[in-house]
User: Fold this.
Amino acid sequence: MGSLKGKVATPKGVDGEVEWQMELFPECKAPSSKGMFITFEGGEGTGKSTQLKLLSEYLLSLKINNIQTKEPGGTEVGQELRRLLVTGDKDKFDAVAEALLYYADRRVHLTTKVWPTLNNGIWVLSDRFADSTVAYQYYGYDKRVDKQLLDELYKIAVGDFKPDLTIVLDLDPKVGLERSFKKAMGMETKETRHESRGLKFHTNLRKGYLEMAKQEPERFVVLDANKSIERLHIDIVQVVKERFKL
Ligand SMILES: Nc1ncnc2c1ncn2[C@@H]1O[C@H](COP(=O)(O)OP(=O)(O)OP(=O)(O)O)[C@@H](O)[C@H]1O
Ligand SMILES: [Mg+2]
Assistant:
């Protein structure tokens, strides 16, 4: 039995922070009957974390239990990997080593948090997932990493499991990076390793997300993120309501 903490809607309202016990998934397999898995993707500073929190609150208002999580760093082990991955020199490892570290984080995240949670009928909202690895390690680096390698890693670590919905927040990287650097100024640990890669990398990244979305239109929705927080939230609610018939 493992213990996961999260906000769940309670009969008294939606403010309760409740801890619940759940069996960790011993066979490490994706669940079959489950809550929905929604991932937020996009470049730096596009509003993923802001919008994920707002969507979580919206779902709670409908009494849909959900947790907010992220990659990298959605678990205790992941926090250590996150520190390695998002701080420090941008060239401290090559893109293959990076992809392996991201997949180590992802596997721990899935087996100890995402899958057990979904298996309990609780929705999971994740700030980034596997599309980020393809966007950053493949498209961002101008395809220097073999796409087949990333596909194989996915198969090994994730299998057939995939998000029920992936929301890509699309924004001019100049605007996003400016927001990100402004945010980082107030942070004690500067999570700016990727931000420091330059505009070409981030432009590739944006194109990569659009290409992935085109290849899998049934899973992806691309939203224009160049609008106010409130307006974008309304767009996201509309997408989620339609997709899940809420
Ligand atoms: N629509 C918006 N308009 C203007 N500012 C915004 C908007 N959405 C978010 N911000 C601000 O921009 C900054 C980055 O937003 P947020 O952290 O949600 O983005 P993110 O995509 O999670 O970024 P990162 O990739 O760095 O994690 C924050 O300071 C946030 O308050
Ligand atoms: Mg964020």
About this structure: Residues 95-119 form the longest helix (25 residues). The pocket of adenosine-5'-triphosphate (ligand 1) is lined by residues 42, 44-50, 179-180, 183, 228-229, 232 (CB under 6 Å). The domain at 35-244 is CATH 3.40.50.300 (Rossmann fold).
